[in-house]
Amino acid sequence: MKCRWIWMLGLCVLVTGCSGAKEPRLLDPVGETTDSAKVIKGEMYDIAAYDSAVTSEFKEVKLPDDAVIKGVNVQVGGEVSQGSPILTLDNESTGMQNEDIDSKIAKLQAENEYLNQVDAYDLQILELELQKIKEEGGNNTYTLRDANDEVNKKKSEIAKKQVDQQKTIAELQMAKADGVSAGGEVLSPWDGTIVYLNAGRSGSVVEAGTVVAIVAKKDSKILLGDYIERETVKNAHRIYARIGTKEYDVTNVPYEQFELNQRLFYKLPLFSTFYMEEAPEITTGMFASVVVITNYVDSALQIPENALLSDEEGYYVYKKDGKEFKRQNVKTGHMTQTAVEIKEGLKEGDEVYVKP
Fold it and tell me: What does the alpha-carbon distance between residue 247 and residue 273 come to, in Å, rounded to a whole number?
């Protein structure tokens, strides 16, 4: 009986102690030391690396029209000078025989403007008919649906036609930039070396938009690699190249808008191109990493990423108070893979628990 009374008394003490439990404190296990870190102020940023390689600057030479090859004047590995003919086209087979590219673009733009006006009028008529059916009550569900379908169909046709128009003009603009002459010759855009040739033999038919040659610019070095989105480049705090153990300043060379649109339309791969500072130790073929730093904060109060905890109440840490670690709620700012910016709840020099 005495033993049962002692057991019940012990249970009551235990239950009483549990009912008044507070936020648990993080204590050092016996014989061990808890990992901790100081709250610091310093630079904070996101960093990403993109694979790249050192290569010569090059241009793709494309044909704006279907054409028949009359003569091939170069071979892969051959040297060319700016303006020298790479290919000769059969004037009787190409649409460029009696007009230069600028006049052809102007003519296409004028034609497109007229066709777009006609389409706009047609669409306006369809929309008026649809509006009339709605105003009359739209009792005939099928008539209303058909009219609505006609409007949407016309809008889709106009959108597709305008994309095709832009594509055709973009191809002509690229041909002009890459050195296609009005006299039926494909010209080299600069002094350099032919590194790719896709013209076939005399008499071969080449379709519009085909890359017939790639010319590497003489004595040039660029970085060519994984595509980096325009917004990322635009908002970057710093971009540099790492080759071996050294860093080199670089300048991004973005796609022209019509070239970007063309590559997206044809689902061609996208690359990022960078000019780099002159350095005699750099040679073509070297591997490089293009490093992009974003979301830069000059003096951020921060803790290690693995010091931050969360529950239904929000974010918190365990802050050292004497010999114990106690919960401290915090408000956070920017987060990276390694650090968290602290807006409220801690000050520089505080010590926090870090998860091992």
Answer: 17
Residues with Cβ within 8 Å of 189's Cβ and at least 6 positions away in sequence, in order, are 59, 61, 82, 177, 178, 179, 215
pLDDT tens, 73-100? Answer: 999 999 999 989 998 887 665 544 435 6
- In whole angstroms, what is the distance from residue 145 CA to residue 154 CA? 14
**Which amino acid is present at 292?**
V
Selection from 125, 107, 127, 103 nearest residue 115 by Cα: 107
Structural domain boundaries of the chain?
22-45+297-353, 48-57+218-294, 58-216
pLDDT digits (tens, 9 = 90+) for 18-75: 444 445 555 544 444 568 999 999 999 999 999 999 999 988 888 777 788 888 999 9
- Spatial separation of the C-alpha atoms in residues 293 and 43, rounded to whole Å: 11
8 Å CB contact between 52 and 152? no
Question: How many angstroms separate the CA atoms of 118 and 85, rounded?
Answer: 42
Q: Specify the residue for token string 């918190």.
A: 316
What count of residues does the chain have? 356
Does 22-45+297-353 carry CATH code 2.40.420.20?
yes
